[in-house]
Predict the structure.
Amino acid sequence: MVVADTVEEARHAADLVEVTYEPAPAATTFDLGRSRPPSSGAEEGERPGETARGDMDGALAGAPVAIDITCVAPREHHHAMEPHATIAVWQGERLTLYDKTQWVDNDRKEIAHVFGIPEDHVRVISPYVGGAFGSALRTWPHVAIAALAARRVRRPVRLELRRRELTTSVGFRPHTRQRVALGANTDGTLFSLVQEAVAQTSTYEEYAESTLDPARVTYACPNVRTSYRLVPMHTNTPCPMRAPGIATGTYALELGMDELAAALGMDPLALRLQNLADRDQEQNLPWSSNELEACYRVAAARFGWERRLREPRSTRLGSALIGQGMATAIYAADRAPASASVTLFASGDALVRTAASDMGPGTYTSLAQVAADALGIPVARVRVEIGDTALPPAPVHGGSMTMASVGNAVHAACEAVRAKALALGGDPASRSSARASGPAAGDREPVEVIRGHGLDRLEATATSRPGEEAEKYASWAFGAVFAEVRVDAELGAVRVSRLVGAYDIGRVVNPKIARSQCIGGMVVGIGMALLEEAQWDPRFGRVMNANLAEYLVPVNADALDIDAVFVPSDDRNFNPLGVKGVAEIALCGVAPAIASAVYHTPPASASDSFPSPRSYCWRSERVQVPERVQVP
Ligand code: MOS
């Protein structure tokens, strides 16, 4: 690192540095011969090398209909609009970091450890994060380097990674090769399922993903075997990227289901319905909630699946071959301990404080809504302060668990404020009469109590943590994604003309931003299916397309007609707010639905009966769940 007064001087000076390397043998290829099981540490993190249920030996041989496919997912990079950047400021032995992070508390812990100083000597401030998708979950080396440089030069130092450095200095979605072998009875009932994944990691760290969770959970199947292997390579360490592991594992599993449907001569949706799981068969636990069947029904109806012609090559519009496909989406619903404080002022304003981050999904807005609902005040009166280690601790802003964790902490803190108001409020008679006159009126609103007692404010801090529900239930978000593609018959160019997703994400706190999350996730899915791929140069162990001109992501012109809706759901078994989390489920299932649609395209007779793409616009409506699924 070169430190200078201006960025230009620093870059110029850095260019003058000459580096020589002593050549040494390097592992720069994805060599399956060097693959090995994950260590016991990964096993403890529920990323086992091997799992099996049922009788796998007899099962595969015994299945009347079987498929066996290989599926390769490329290395992908997060490439948020905002690159990673850190400003480090020392005051004596105390350090303040202004950082891009999804987890200020962990940033503080890691940096305090690196410098051997008490955690309370480090403050991390990160109120706004311009996109991250998992790249800012960890504290990467440049954060420590910025702090080290600032200490050395005794001045604040700002370090920004350039776009190119985002391929070497932060993690990425690992290149993964998978095999899926499915066996079914002739009626389509799944009989055996094998899924094997081999993924890259670095030579100096092990990164293992939950790639095989979907194989073990999505469908009812008596005989299931999974195997996970890692290939250490001379590359930087991979890390979570939007629906880490599960998006990749779902991709292979759903391609397998599509192939199985073709082998059976069965409709892809009918095959899914045939194999709905009435519980989590891996843990043998009931679902805390599961509206997957409703997702299928709603999405199929909105898409018009019943008009799909079963035969591939049967639909054409001008020079375009039209294909339609679908896939299932699942994502684990998690929650972690989180704290928040809530202050309600006599003015009717409220302040919510917690260390959580907002990398774009609308944490500020939805926490304000939760507080406004619970305190009985307008949402515009709630101010939210987040992204600072000086605030009550919050878990990682990842794994789609911010609302289930921090949302419940805010809710609990508001309940505590209400309880304080109730304790002050006195007069049970007036409360019971208020209740009798209408449940909406309820107790006196806390702000009236504050005013009535001539107080300035009421304040409470609360912690929400997972309870016994984790032992009693399996909690997952679910979805169904339907895709229509137009493939140019001469050029083979693929356009995704329509995407329809229906999701069970538990209670939806804010339909507008939740829907926006889903639209965004589906656009990422277009990238996953058709565009995103880091080109790897095995000579130098580097990504060649380390820029946004050559690493392609979908743009507006690639996103034509995208429709995302939520089926009625409210998971109070999982947590008091009833939410399951939305961000990552939105990516799952999109790429395989698109692949399924492409598979359905090769040419024959013409038909123009399909709706043309329309530009995306907001539609706000109540979702009707049809009585039954229409299967052609
Ligand atoms: Mo997400 S990969 O948990 O930011």
About this structure: The pocket of dioxothiomolybdenum(VI) ion is lined by residues 102, 132-134, 137, 240-242, 244, 398-399 (CB under 6 Å). Residues 402-425 form the longest helix (24 residues). The radius of gyration is 26 Å.
